[in-house]
Amino acid sequence: MKLSKTAAKTAVGAAGIAALSVFSATTAMAEPAVQPFGTPEQLNDGAMATSYTVSNLGPANVTIPGYQPRGKLYQADVTARADRGTVTPVVSDFNARAANSDTYRVINTVPTPGGINPGPIGQGAAANGKIYFDVTGPPPDGVVYNDGVQDVLIWTSKA
Fold first, then answer.
1. How far is CA 40 from CA 43, 51, 77, 81, in A?
2. DSSP label at 150?
3. Is 113 helix (H, G, I), strand (E, B) or coil?
């Protein structure tokens, strides 16, 4: 069966739209679930898996030696658990986020009081500590773990 040029172009266009629809659906399914504070979320990285739990986001009443805040310090409690393999918590990937999407990077340029140790954790073990944020705008109501490209784990008080 021979198709006319118009029919062939229509078929190619329809195939392209179908492929785009599948890609869009796959991308939409890749969106991270928004969890309430205190819920463990697992991050898989090949042979390794780390469960992070973030809780108790709120204003901090501490001084961080060697760090001069530009705004108000906030803190959150974090637990990193090695579910599979020996893992290393990537503290620098945490950010606090306000309802208007303002994002505040974690303070990781100096040691912090009670901060989570960024050293390796053996399978089945966990590390607990605090992470701190310098909030220069609206107060945050969530914490995200961002891999440098996209949010992959999200905790919020609104979930």
1. 10, 6, 12, 9
2. S
3. coil
